[in-house]
Amino acid sequence: MYGELALISGTANRPLAEAIARELEVQLIGADVFKFANSNIFCRLHCSVRSKDVFIIQPTCVTEHEDGTVASVNDNLMELLIMLDTVRRDSAGRITAVVPYYGYGRTDKKDQPRVPITARLVADLISVAGADRLLTVDLHAGQIQGFFTIPVDELTAFYALSRYFREKNIPDAVVVAPDIGGTKHARNFAEALRVPLAVIEKRRVQRPDGSIAKALNVIGEVEGKNVLLFDDEIDTGGTVAQAIVFLQSAGAQRVFVGVTHPVFSDPAIERLSGLPIEEIVVTDTIPLSPRKRLPNITVLSMANLLAEVIRRIHEGRSVGALFGE
């Protein structure tokens, strides 16, 4: 049995950390985290965490702060590693890295010559820095769990998203996978919502400037239907934009989009704002700056789920039992 529960927030997603603390009815441990003039990151705790069960909440995403500064994925990753080292050197009893969004997760395999597997490298860095466990949400690829030599609890926004759309009770709905690779993910949503499934078939088309993936066919019926597109994240918005244009040409009516991680790298907001999307439903694993909060975006909080899982890990109770597993 470890000592008392201690929550520490990095600077990447402070609102989510505060919401988790409220759910658990605990105070966040104070910490000074800042950059020196030479861009070196520094961390200093306000009190000791010796022998405590420490949870450090820090997604490795891009963060646009209220003061106009932008923290890159590398900034937030380095901050996480430094915070892990800080609490390890303060003799914490156990350290869990709570990483709602796992950066570099898309570089998860060696799919061409002379390239890295950065998702594995980041796993090694987190472990070496001092984490005893990892708690995360919807990894880009399930195999990333196997990159860690420490226990990994991967949560999912599937239940929150499917519940939200089930309560909307959209008529004549069909779930569409934006590509063949997303078929299993989309099929689970179709089963949960008890609606049909369609899949967009893409082919690589050769052009003078290189090859691109182009939607050529849709497997399933979308004409006259209200379409629900699900994915784990939206980055630049290219995939979802292409899918929506293609689906509309195939006769689809209203379009809804549900994703876990709103990465929204430029030019995603420009693309999304120009598309006829009725609603984009995301979670708060990544904080949205004001300029990214489009009128049709709905944010579902993961704070309640993360708080309950943190409570179960702290008390030594099953996490799988929470989902009937």
Question: How would you characterize the overall build of this protein?
Answer:
It is a single chain. With 325 residues, this protein is α/β, with parallel strands linked by helices. The chain has 2 domains: 5-156 and 303-323, Rossmann fold; 158-300, 3-Layer(aba) Sandwich (Rossmann fold). It has 8 helices and 16 strands. It has helices spanning 14-24, 73-89, 118-129, 158-168, 183-193, 238-249, 268-273, 303-315, and strands at residues 5-9, 31-35, 41-45, 53-57, 63-64, 70-71, 94-99, 133-137, 152-155, 173-177, 197-207, 210-219, 226-234, 255-262, 279-283, 297-300. A 7-stranded mixed β-sheet has the order 12-11-10-13-14-15-16, sandwiched between helices.
Q: Which keywords apply here?
A:
325 residues, alpha/beta, Rossmann fold, 7-stranded mixed beta sheet, 5-stranded parallel beta sheet, 8 helices, 16 strands
* Helix/strand structural class: alpha/beta
Q: How many distinct helices?
A: 8
Portion of residues within helices: 25-40%
Oligomer: single chain
CATH architecture of the largest domain: 3-Layer(aba) Sandwich
CATH topology of the largest domain: Rossmann fold
Beta-strand content: 25-35%
**pLDDT below 50 for ≥5 consecutive residues: which ranges?**
none
Query: Which term fits the overall shape?
Result: globular
What topology, given as strand order, has the largest sheet? 12-11-10-13-14-15-16
- What is the arithmetic mean of pLDDT? 94
H and E order:
EHEEEEEHEHEEHEHEEEHEHEEH
Q: What is the CATH class of the largest domain?
A: Alpha Beta
Q: Please tell me how large the radius of gyration is.
A: 21 Å
